[in-house]
Design brief:
It is a single chain. This protein is of the alpha/beta class. The protein has 2 domains: 180 residues, 3-Layer(bba) Sandwich (FAD/NAD(P)-binding domain), CATH 3.50.50; 105 residues, 3-Layer(bba) Sandwich (FAD/NAD(P)-binding domain). The protein contains 6 helices and 19 strands. The chain is elongated and about 60 Å long. The structure holds NADP nicotinamide-adenine-dinucleotide phosphate. The site of NADP nicotinamide-adenine-dinucleotide phosphate has 16 residues, from helix 4.
Length: 305
């Protein structure tokens, strides 16, 4: 299949890019390996996407974005792309069944996923108190105690954010020193609601239908204690979904794709949008903005070819 543009990834960034490109009459195909919506589809309720005064289910918003993109003629294909090669001035993508797609411009919108620790209870209670997004789920924990795992910028920033709702935020970090920016650390140290459990690791999340507690273990003497929390937020790192793409574009040390503010990558004709990009804020609203910008830039690139 040959099109002018391939959008790789069907989360909010990819769907917005596909919608803008199709509306600009660029022949485009969006390739997604799962269901359109990405992480948004897995979010129970979205309360912070402008225009939706009443909360909307993430799955419903995903269907609406897909329908909106298809309305302008975007073709959506379900396929698992294993490799992307540069060929002349264009690109070829090969999926797991050997089908080849070729295009003149490419938008990478494959997203990122939170690193999971895989401790007992984490998977079983995901969405029932286990969360990877305080901005999305924090308001559900008003008047609860919660735990935040990690010691980086995300963990400390989100622990500070969660003090708006939770009566106590237990920050559980495996070392006796935080990795986070000093400014964030100072903010956290000044908040009486944040209790830091230095040199502790989470061992198990307890609860049947919902989270009831977390068992943590001292990395120093092996002693264990149970904290009675209603929510557990994991911030032990994010991993970009860039399998098969790393040789195509420059990334930062963690593998996130570097772009300029037009969403152009180090390779002419390749743009990146959304969570897969090296950026500050990963939200549906920022992903949609990236997608629109990437489509606009791809249009200009194609016009110049
Ligand atoms: P991160 O910087 O990779 O931090 C992950 C944290 O999780 C670290 O404290 C790490 O501990 C801990 N951790 C990792 N594996 C673990 C394990 N198996 N068990 C227990 N703890 C574990 O990730 P992030 O905080 O999500 O940040 C990602 C990037 O976004 C960074 O570049 C960060 O600077 C940036 N960011 C910036 C801001 C901001 O500027 N305001 C906000 C958010 C994110 P160790 O420290 O011991 O390694």
């Amino acid at each position: 299949m040959h099109t002018d543009l391939v959008v790789l990834g069907g989360g909010p960034a990819g769907l917005a890019a596909g919608m803008y490109a199709s509306r600009a009459r660029i022949s485009s195909v969006l390739i997604e390996k799962g269901q359109p919506g990405g992480q948004m589809a897995a979010t129970e309720i979205v309360e912070n996407y402008p225009g939706f005064v009443d909360p909307i289910y993430g799955a419903e918003l995903s269907l609406k974005m897909e329908a909106h993109a298809r309305k302008f003629g975007l073709e959506v294909v379900q396929a698992d792309i294993l490799s992307v090669e540069k060929e002349g001035k264009g690109f070829t993508l090969t999926d797991d069944s050997g089908t080849v797609y070729s295009c003149r411009a490419l938008i990478i919108a494959t997203g990122a996923s939170p690193v999971k620790l895989g401790i007992p209870g984490e998977l079983e209670l995901a969405g029932k108190g286990v969360s990877y997004c305080a901005v999305c789920d924090g308001p559900f924990f008003r008047d609860f105690e919660v735990a935040v795992i990690g010691g980086g910028d995300s963990a400390v920033q989100e622990a500070v954010y969660l003090t708006r709702f939770a009566t106590r935020v237990h920050l559980i970090h495996r070392r006796d020193e935080l990795r986070a920016l000093k400014e964030l650390q100072e903010k956290a140290f000044g908040m009486p609601r944040i209790v830091i459990h230095w040199s502790h690791v989470p061992v198990e999340i307890t609860g049947v239908r919902e989270v009831e507690g977390i068992r943590i273990r001292s990395a120093k003497d092996g002693s264990e204690e149970n904290l009675p929390v209603g929510g557990v937020f994991f911030y032990v790192g994010l991993k970009p979904s860039t399998e098969g793409l790393k040789d195509l574009v420059d990334t930062d040390y963690a593998g996130f794709i570097l772009t300029d503010d037009t969403m152009a990558t180090s390779t002419p004709g390749v743009f990146a949008a959304g969570d897969v990009r090296c950026k500050q804020l990963r939200q549906i609203a920022t992903a949609v903005g990236d997608g629109a910008t990437a489509a606009f830039s791809a249009q200009h690139y194609l016009e110049k070819l």
